[in-house]
Amino acid sequence: MTPDDEDQFGSPAYVRRLRRYEAAPVASASAAGMDFYSPFGPMISRVRAPVALVDGLNSYADGLIAAAGAGNRGPGEITLPEDFVRAGGEDSLASSTARWMAQYLETADDRAIGKVRFESFWMVRHFAGTFSPAHFHSGDVSGVLYLKVPDQIENEREEEQQSYINARRAGYITFLIGGKQRYSKSVISFKPRVGDFYIFPGWLLHAVEPFLGEGERRAMSFNAFVE
Residue 113 in contact with residue 197, Cβ under 8 Å? Predict the structure, then answer.
């Protein structure tokens, strides 16, 4: 293979060269149903949310979408009101999230959680070609829970072999830190799956890649402060 072949955008050699900076989504530890990832310092956790919680969030969003009327996709971003977030007592969205945050901080920060103050909960709806650029959140701790994932994503199998740097387009969430550094990982990407709830530092840069194909990618996010 010539140097020109290696530099050709999208070639296998080109992708391999880029993927050396991308960490594999393999958990470094697991405890009480929660997986932990620490590919480049800050810790990311993943837990499976109960089906009832996912269904409740989807039902709430579907009601708003239906109210928008036929032929209207409804709101792209939905802010969740306080009464909805706290409905259900110990099984509420707020209480469940606080418990998972406590479990996350016991491992990530080696301390018991103090008082939790939630700033906001909201849902975001993505369709083919839409995305979220790299950004961070305002809280100490943030998270994302997947509620809907398209049944069919165009070219998904091929895109799974690509890297984030090589413009993979399959609706993944990607966490980024730093830049290109030898012998160090800079990015890690996770394929969306309904019920997966990721918790991470609010300052950690992350982005949502677009997908091609029919359907909706729906996710709930939150910001929280720990006192």
Answer: no
Q: What is the pLDDT of residues 104-159, one digit of tens each?
A: 998 888 777 778 999 999 999 999 999 999 999 999 999 999 999 998 887 787 77
Query: Distances in Å between the alpha carbon of 54 and those of 7, 84, 91?
Result: 44, 13, 12
146: which strand partners? 219
Long-range contacts of 46-51 (CB under 8 A, 24+ apart): 46/190, 46/196, 46/197, 46/198, 46/199, 47/100, 47/103, 47/197, 47/199, 48/195, 48/196, 48/197, 49/96, 49/145, 49/195, 49/196, 49/197, 50/91, 50/96, 51/195
Q: How many domains in the chain?
A: 1
DSSP 147-190: EE--S--TTHHHHHTS-TTTT--B--EEEE-S---TTS--EEEE
* Structural domain includes residue 158: yes
Q: What range defines the domain where residue 82 resides?
A: 37-226
Residue 121 inside a domain? The answer is yes
Residue 205 lies in a domain: yes
Integer Cα distance of 188 and 207 in angstroms: 11
Identify whether the C-beta of residue 176 lies closer than 8 Å to the C-beta of residue 207: yes
CB 29 within 8 A of CB 185: no
CATH number, residue 82:
2.60.120.620
Please state the φ and ψ torsions of residue 138, each to the nearest 5 degrees.
-90, -20
pTM for the predicted model, two decimal places: 0.85
